[in-house]
Write a structure and sequence with these properties.
TIM Barrel, alpha/beta, binds (3S,4R)-3-hydroxy-2-oxopiperidin-4-yl beta-D-xylopyranoside, 14 helices
Length: 379
């Protein structure tokens, strides 16, 4: 266990009181990556606007505070390989070049996923599922082409994303329907053949749930028993004010680490809005919709306090287990960029990320930076 920054209780309470407003300015010397130090990489998912020339505000924030980046969408199959004989590497190249030229560790996301899948990939020209042989060939060609292109530039890949469901069984995705469980070992094998030096990860959400935890543990064992490389499990970490339970989340971290892999928090965000219950008819009434989007102007201080406390608790959990955690990545730079504004309902105003709509650090981030800098010996 590593507790790099343990502030005194008095200091922590004084800061909590002082930092409830998100608009407070931050000393230009403070940076999140300095606060995190060598505990783990601190990463951020970037969209294509942010890596394009011109968005210097975002780029400067990334360079100042983060040590790692991952593409939010542009390496997903529907974007990078939209048609069988056509790849589009333009945006992915831009992201990788931005990372390399700024000394940032780049992660590839993701090779095999049922969502944002290229529409042609698992079907023939009549729209019928392809044979197992054809799908294997297509997976191999796709993985070889993408992974080899970024060999030496991308440290590791989310090889398979979201393949295990809550009861621990396999998601009935087209990959599973055609190839059965074998599609996962195959994907890891192809990725390793394409770049033997690349780290390989299995990535999923809702990892605090016991059934999925056990399913993922079983999967790690299967891969290892077959001599396949798996370096880490990515716990996406899309959170809300009422989930996950921090103890269950910790149990999963420990369960994966016990299998001899590292753990990464790969898509960290925490919605500050009411959780939308699955199966709810969200088109029900205007009143119901308004109740689900209550903070269109700003986040009330009372909610902000609870959100910041909860984020800090999770961050302290990551620090506590820094011996097994190799990266913590926020799923977006500022609240304005977050996918949570449009998921699971379109058009809400959410506050899930480490930086607010004015590119300012949230109070708990500011506290982390100030605590860390207060611990530095005076020069
Ligand atoms: C999300 C992106 O943030 C959105 O922009 C996109 O519209 C949908 O996908 N799990 C993942 C991520 O692994 O790739 C997803 O990203 C969020 C859920």
């Amino acid at each position: 266990m590593k507790f790099r920054h343990v502030a005194s209780m008095a200091f922590w309470m004084a800061l909590t009181t002082a930092c409830t407003s998100q608009q407070q300015s931050v000393s230009p010397e403070l940076s999140l990556k300095d606060a995190v130090g060598d505990q783990f990489l601190i990463g951020v998912a970037l969209n294509t606007r942010q890596t394009a020339a011109g968005d210097s505000l975002s780029q400067n924030l990334v360079k100042r505070h983060f040590t790692a980046i991952v593409p939010e969408n542009c390496m997903k199959m529907e974007e990078i390989h939209p048609e069988e004989d056509r790849y589009d590497f333009s945006k992915a190249d831009e992201l990788v070049n931005f990372g390399i030229s700024n000394g940032l560790v780049v992660t590839g996301h993701c090779l095999i996923w049922h969502s944002q899948l290229a529409p042609w990939f698992c079907v023939d020209k009549d729209g019928k599922p392809v044979s197992a042989e054809v799908l294997k060939e297509r997976m191999k060609e796709h993985i070889y082409t993408v992974v080899k292109r970024y060999k030496g530039k991308i440290r590791g890949w989310d090889v398979v994303n979201e393949a295990i469901i809550e009861d621990g069984s396999y998601r009935k995705s087209p990959f599973y329907e055609i190839l059965g469980e074998e599609f996962i070992p195959l994907a890891f094998q192809y990725a390793h053949e394409a770049d033997p030096d690349a780290e390989l990860y299995y990535n999923d959400y809702g990892m605090d749930i016991e059934g999925r935890r056990n399913g993922v543990v079983k999967l790690i064992r299967t891969l290892k028993e077959r001599g396949l490389r798996i370096d880490a499990v990515g716990m996406q970490g899309h959170m809300g004010m009422d989930h996950p339970d921090i103890n269950e989340f910790e149990k999963s971290m420990m369960a994966f680490a016990a299998e001899g892999v590292k753990v990464m928090i790969t898509e960290w965000d925490m919605s500050a809005l009411p959780t939308v219950k699955q199966g709810a008819n969200i088109a029900d009434t205007l009143a119901y919709q308004a109740a689900l989007n209550p903070y269109t102007e700003s986040l009330p201080d009372s909610v902000s306090k609870v959100w910041n406390t909860r984020m800090k608790q999770f961050f302290q959990l990551f620090e506590k287990h820094a011996d097994v955690i190799t990266r913590v990545t926020a799923w977006g730079l500022t609240d304005n960029d977050s996918w949570k504004n449009d998921f699971p309902i379109k058009g809400r105003t959410d506050y899930p990320l480490l930086f607010d709509r004015n590119y300012q650090p949230k109070p708990f981030v500011k506290e982390l930076m100030e605590e860390a800098s207060a611990e530095q010996p005076v020069k």
